[in-house]
Amino acid sequence: MAIVKPFKGIRPPKELVEQVESRPYDVLNSEEARAEAGDNEKSLYHIIKPEIDFPEGTSEYDPRVYEKAAENFQKFQDKGWLVQDEKEQYYIYAQTMNGKTQYGLVVGAYVNDYMTGVIKKHELTRRDKEEDRMKHVRVNNANIEPVFFAYPDNAVLDALIKKYAQTKPEYDFIAPIDGFGHQFWIISDDEDIKTVTEEFRKMPSLYIADGHHRSAAAALVGAEKQKQNPNHKGDEEYNYFMAVCFQASQLTILDYNRVIRDLNGLSSEEFLKALAKNFIVEKKGAEIYKPAKLHEFSLYLDGEWYSLLAKEGTYDNSDPIGVLDVDISSRLILDEILDIKDLRSSDRIDFVGGLRGLGELKRRVDSGEMRTALALYPVSMQQIMDIADSGKIMPPKATWFEPKLRSGLVIHKLS
Hints:
This protein is an alpha+beta fold. It is 31% helix and 24% strand.
């Protein structure tokens, strides 16, 4: 069963939310954060990307940068740009992209659920990235940014969310960069709080959709604090970390595509011939061609688009990993033909999130920067949950969730 609790969120006053809120720390670099923050001293980037307060070129891993994060977090509270709610409560966070809205419940997720596998992951994490976020959590004694969970569809929670969605939200704004809508409600009614807690308790698992490093860091710091406290009882705030939980059926997963620098010494004709061993190759012409179904890929090469349909027997429908298009393309194209073994470390490949569209693949190949591009059909949330349930790990660069959670709408303090 999944254990969640309400918490006393630290939030911007309604009139300041659009000055405080920001994109997540990991979707932009220091220069972009510096530009977006501009002369706005209330921007959350001063807490989540505090290197912008130092001369250009200062490492984001400089110890002074972490200390600056804590100093700025305190400053935001002292100045009233962030204010803690007086009551423990849940929150609803809705995002609207291209006319579709998804509703998430903001909860305190249980550290021990992460440690015991009730909160399930589908990606590997890197220790250096974990340690970076752990330092950020430690120095602020808070989860400044939420993680992104999915939960199996639940009719009771759906009805509760719909009830709140009919009321006036606490926050309601359009984000300036992407044009997506963001709304936020407060669940302060005791009966509704009890309902949320009880409905999650019926769930055997929660699933990390996006934010594996933040989840690991938040849980590991909570576990550290348990060990460091000689009077640990189990009900302390550090036993929980902040997550936004969405119904699985509402989530949008976009394609996560590949651009490749060279053909491993092959000519275009030799490459296409090698592909024909495991794929039905069909030329589609100069117009952008998008894969229409599972096991179909689009290839862009020499100004032409091709459909690649994986032949029967090249994948295993009974294996939650072997059935994935990201696995098929990694095994049969990137590894077998192009000799790209490690997607995480190879400098011969790059990845393009689906929000940028297939035109971005074409642009990067036409510019001469890349030799060819490969577009994949998106992974489904059900596939992710099946993999997490099986205890297996997805191949790297398999999922691209959109819209991303905005940061700064609510913060969870660990004490």
